[in-house]
């Protein structure tokens, strides 16, 4: 299956990266390389693009899409390993980075990857197919309370306990192996007119499988610490949990003091690292919303190293 993905907030991201033609930039969620291609068009041969993706299929697709450019380094790595990647590439600091968080169109559209609740496939959901934990293991092995917790926290699902109980009851008789099997269990367990009540459950499982929120929270400051002065970090998110993490982390890094308000003097010794370029998130244009359905929940936040 062809790796297709329409880059969201493309123009806005490229504009906000403030690209220098001889700079070093990192695309931490390379995908097919849509954002990277536009960065490379603005770079001279002395500039460099470092591309990371934990999905081997994405690296393969990006190599093909960016084959006309020689100033690219590819790393089949999760962006939480950015420090090791930069050390291996021989760079202490870079001039900018972007993150396009979440699942790609290819991963959703390829039923065999197990991300889609619209296509039947194995309950997988691993972005890195070398990782051990799969969605199948979670739905068959996690306790009622563990399932309830991830559906509630990562899916913000109001019927979390009901759905978790339905899964636990079903698996007493049959192993849950496929996406449509899970979808049917969820749909039968909740009384709602909502078109896709399983959507939030699939989101929660995907986040748990790939440790998405934990990795995001742990990585943002690592990237900022490796930016040159005036280097920018652009982050595109697709749901409120991700956006909240980015918003709060950017806000924290933009403050001189993070002591509780009732402290008489500052004792935190916190270092202000960034200024906020976008105090409110940048949203897709009307044209993009019309032409790219998957842009509807997208938000872009930008900060600059000081």
UniProtKB/TrEMBL annotation:
It holds the Pfam family Methyltransf_5. One of its GO terms (molecular function) is rRNA (cytosine-N4-)-methyltransferase activity. Signal peptide: none annotated. Coiled coil: none annotated. GO terms for cellular component: cytoplasm. The keyword rRNA processing applies. The keyword S-adenosyl-L-methionine applies. It comes from the Bacteria. Its EC number is 2.1.1.199. S-adenosyl-L-methionine binds at residues 33-35, 53, 79, 100, 107. Gene3D superfamilies: Putative methyltransferase TM0872, insert domain, Vaccinia Virus protein VP39. It is found in: Cytoplasm. Keywords: Cytoplasm, Methyltransferase, rRNA processing, S-adenosyl-L-methionine, Transferase. It catalyses: cytidine(1402) in 16S rRNA + S-adenosyl-L-methionine = N(4)-methylcytidine(1402) in 16S rRNA + S-adenosyl-L-homocysteine + H(+). GO terms for biological process: rRNA base methylation. NCBIfam families: 16S rRNA (cytosine(1402)-N(4))-methyltransferase RsmH. Specifically methylates the N4 position of cytidine in position 1402 (C1402) of 16S rRNA. This is Ribosomal RNA small subunit methyltransferase H. It comes from Anaerococcus vaginalis ATCC 51170.
